[in-house]
Amino acid sequence: MASKHLINSPSTLVIESLEGLCLLNPELKLDRDARVLFWPMLNSPSQKVALICGGGSGHEPAHAAFVGKGLLTAAVSGSVFASPSGKQVRRAVELVHLHNATSDGIEQGAGTLIIVKNYTGDILNFGLAKEALASFPTYANSVRFLPVADDVSVPRSRITLVGRRGLAGTVLVYKITGELATRGASLDEVEKIGQYVTENLATIGVATGHSHVPGTERGQDALGEDEIEIGMGIHNEPGVLRLRGSNGAPPPLSEIMPRLITLLTASREEDPERGWVSFLPSTDIVLMVNNLGGLSPLELSAVLLEATKTISQKGLLIKRVLCGTYMTSLNMPGFSLTLLKLPSMEQGTGQGPSQDLIISLLDASPEAPGWGWISRRPPVALSEQIVTSVSFSSRSSSSSKFSSITNEDAKGIVGAIKRACNALIHAEPELTRMDTVAGDGDCGLTLKAGAEGVLALLLSNEISGNNLSDVFVAIAGVAEDKMGGTSGGLYSIFFSALAQGLQLSSSTMIVDWPYALHHALTKLYTYTRARPPSRTLVDPLDAFVNSLHTEKTDSMSALKKAQEAARATRGMQAKAGRAVYGGGEGGEGEMDPGAWGVVVLLNAIVDEEGQTGKTQ
Length: 616
Known about the structure:
By secondary structure, the chain is an alpha/beta fold.
């Protein structure tokens, strides 16, 4: 549970957030006392239906960041996870009507629709305001009330009195009704399409932990490191199902997603406790993937991919996709999925809204800071968008200047490479631990990814074991593709240059390893300023190569020099690499993980006789 917050004070956070939104859109107005952010429609050519929403804060960008032309007219903000009062809501209606009056001061508003999530506090306080306003002739017939209940997780038998919760699907109600109101539709028309959307929504959430309310003590998270909870509410309410992964990690999306889609789409016959909306095969839908606050955009896009796969397997037809942060639970690490059932293409004209109308209302771009980008097209098959790359090395023919080595020697070299790969994979936990202390924690995983890629390449028989140059060119390609980042670039350059060095140095059956390695190191130094001692991988690499080439030692002595250089990085001030920005000494006494990774690799290659290979 992330419990640190960058704020001035919990008591001023809500109002400061609202004032910040005013800076984003100078057309907005804010009543600080009532905490009502609203958009005055004074410049509209005719009066439009006003949309008011709100609830507890902590769900940003809902609700206040959706205030603006083409979306909401006003949003009422309570304290974090607490409904605003009826008085605040009444003030919102007054402000909307006052600022929507014509220039002669006569109130001719087209009416107000209050949209509220189905939570007890919100229903009571927004309902109280609506009924209190109905006692005045000005508002008697012009204020309507639309609750949204889209949650499908909680079974019917548990919600007989309170009904389903309102979740992120409420945002689609805002968008569709807001754009229709902006186009000049009547209050009846806006309310009717809002009811259609509400009745055809299904939402479910999943999270790996709870959110933390600023100003409260850090609680004990009930979920283990390998657990997720399905059906968690946006106020930290517990879910209905927990799933546990393996190896200390949560279950993969491929296991989670079918459960979620089944809960969303199951019919009443298939699941008597749910089945709220009928999603038959070939039904047209809108999919919304919503970040509950603590999920990275990297993960969210992967969620979208897995969701579309599973939905397509159900036979549903996705007409529009929305993916982003719409309704959060502060910093909850999780996401929610919402499906909106669209009318059939034949439906409309007396039977409810047409599909074309709903799609056009969704596609319109509002002037509200919280609304994200949406494609105005249905998704297409990924096969139409994926381009297959052909690597340079696979297009190039070999131009090796030296004769192929013997099969026996080739097997020895490939075997040494395999030993090095397996050693790096085995060392991953220790390298990761070291890098967690000294850096950003990815060194072990990066080297493991490269090692696994090389092993897969050797098993694929896509390269010849008889031509050393081709072997190391292929390994350089794996380092570039699988490792990435600075270390991937360094390894890739080194192995590419090693292939060059092997070609330049060898004209007989004997391979001049010291020359080839020195050539590779020299080439590497043209692309990096790191020189020993630098607390980087070049420290042991330089010690090993120069011991062989300059000092003419055997490989076992060179290995010992490399080990000494790596151990010397303990407490050393970094001079290159990302660790430079840490500003301190090397990782509280830890060796540089990249440097030790080189030692792990070299140690596996150099066998007990102190040989790097039988061709040395």
